Amino acid sequence: MNNTRYSSAGLIIRQREPKNLETPFDRIDSYLTPTALFYIRSHFPRPTLDRASYQLRIDGAVRHPFALNYEQLRNMPSETRVATLECAGNSRVFLVPQVQGAQWELGAAGNAEWTGVPLRALLERAGLADDACEIVLEGADRGAPKEEPRPPNPISYVWSLPRAKAIQPEVLIAYQMNGQDLPLDHGFPVRAIVPGHYGMASVKWLTRIEAVRDPFHGYWQTTDYAYWALTNGKPVRRALGEMKLKSEIARPRIYETLVPNRIYTVSGAAWAGESDVTEIQVSTDGGLAWAEAEFLDPVRRHAWRRWKFDWLTPKEPGQYTLLARAKDASGAFQPYDHDQAYGGYAINHCLSIEVFIEGSG
Ligand code: MTE
Ligand code: MO
Fold it and tell me: Moybdenum cofactor oxidoreductase dimerisation domain: which residues (predicted)?
């Protein structure tokens, strides 16, 4: 963490090409993550799409397949929603032993306002077949994945949504982020936004929406972004979907040095997939005692809630372990341990932040 490199916008560089840049999470101090600081997660070199020739096809198991150009999409009734995206591999650096993939710390997550056409409206217009079970979203980017095992030939970035999620009103075919046209790296000109699901579902540079009658077994959702689910006692590879309940401490930073006997405001953000974050508790003694934190943002489904906790730092110098845990609407808290069935993904256990109390208060 000492030789961290930053992009000109101030993002942490995990990989230059394809671009994988992380938000410095300690800099989170607004509800909406500024677009320039929003993490970028790309598997392949960025495709170049032109607004003038852009086409979005909607076909497959539909009665009236059709295509839209950029202007036609922008002329449809639109909606604006706030949604948190978290990369399924966020916080991977904290796993022991280390696992393959970008070594994200806390900042492969962000909260933005997205504007676009509900996917549902496009599916209605196309006349979605009653027996269509999934909606396949295809991006224009192609290449050979880095992660092992690799498919033999170049593939595109494709993700399939269960029908039940695809027809929810929050799923957008978006062309704006925080009130501006999508930046190139965030999927210009058009991307999917699937609130409540890990980031891999929000396909960027979207060019095709295909309804299918059989479960889609693409590389990304069977081999890469998948986990072992036990079904009738047997392990089955299943695609990741809903984001797990998670709270992250933005400040203090890992190994930050704090002054004794002083009020320090511990702060962070929390999100809960398809549920709501109802409470945050903070521990400053490694999980023995917990106290309730205060929310800075209201409940808004699919968007994060920032929180803070005023800590009177101890008089005793030494190393202290801070933890935060979120509770969702069902009353469940984040777990203490990573669920190994998820490998290097869906890391939502309580992450500890070690700090040093030093000097005189
Ligand atoms: N869409 C395409 N076409 N190609 C990609 O590599 N990466 C996915 C998703 N959509 C990806 C994609 C992943 S893994 C994440 S976490 C989000 O985009 C990140 O979105 P962002 O780069 O706008 O933050
Ligand atoms: Mo991701």
Answer: 239-339
